[in-house]
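quick one if you have a minute, typing this from the bus. theres a chain ive been looking at and ive put its sequence and its fold in token form underneath. please have a look and point out which stretches look like helix strand or loop to you. anything you notice is useful, everything is just below.

***
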Amino acid sequence: MQLDPRLLEFIKGARAHGASDGVLLGLLKGHGWPEESIYRALGVQYEKLTGLAVPSPKSSAASAKEAFFYLLAFSTLATWTIGLGSLMFTLIDQWIPDPLATYSYYNQYSIASSTASILVAFPIYIFMMSLILREIRKDHGKLESSIRKWLTYIALFIAAAVIIGDLITILTYFLHGSLTGRFIAKAVTVMLIAGSVFWYYLSSLKRVVPGASDVRE
């Protein structure tokens, strides 16, 4: 990526007058410069001062390991949230029954399948997230990982799409005059699950990790 010469010149001049990197980062971000461009420009300045190139990771093993952790965490997240939603839907069908529907065997199988999904996937998800947080505490630079950011934003996108679809469905049924207690309960369930996932991952982008109080996304 070609850096704007104006950015390089400004950083060079500002640092010559004693501006710290933190001040430059906040100032330039406030004027709309992408954070990545700022860091790259600062790297160019330090390369000139030290005569050394900014080092890059020597091995892709760490990236592969990180990708594995995040992919497994997000796949188990999808498994247990879908299982929770399915379980709640089945319970709602029992709590607010449809007199024209028959459930018996299907309900029993659905409850068993959903419960199994939660019991298997949820502990694995918690375990993987604990490993991810432990890795971040060891290396604060992992907060800037492109793998972490990409997969987090994908999770946010999916959660947002589910919320939007749920709202559209609610409005459609409302305008059609077809809202029922069962439908409202299921729609609220979807909203709570997707909303919780969205809130958690959105807040994680700005969360300070315990043990890394000086690092923020």
Residues 208-217 have pLDDT under 50 and may be disordered. Residues 81 and 193 are 7 Å apart (CA to CA). The two ends are 22 Å apart (CA to CA).
